[in-house]
Amino acid sequence: MSLNITVYSKSACPQCESAKMLLKSRSLAFEEIRIDDETERLAFYEKCGPSVRQMPQIFINDQRVGGLSGLQAALVQLGK
Question: Phi, psi (5° rounding) for residue 40?
């Protein structure tokens, strides 16, 4: 089963780096979208809502799994 993984992150975010390292360590390809600039941030809020502030926010096959702990739980569930 192929996974489409998107990681929304910010620069200087330790949790974001940990999530990306976890995905790389398991050889899982992902797209990273940095929301450091205004255009990307507005697009992110349009997708997730303005109340979602914690980074990273990770989507697997267009379903939001949340941050680092959500990613860990989702990978266990998917057997990855």
Answer: -65, -40
What percentage of the chain carries pLDDT values higher than 70?
99
Cis check: omega of the bond before 14, within 30 degrees of 0: no
**Residue in the structure block whose two tokens are 């600039």:** 37
3-state helix, strand, coil in the chain (%, to 5): 40, 20, 35
pLDDT tens, residue by residue, 26-61: 999 999 999 998 898 888 888 888 788 789 999 999
CA distances (Å), origin 49, targets 7, 54, 57:
16, 12, 12
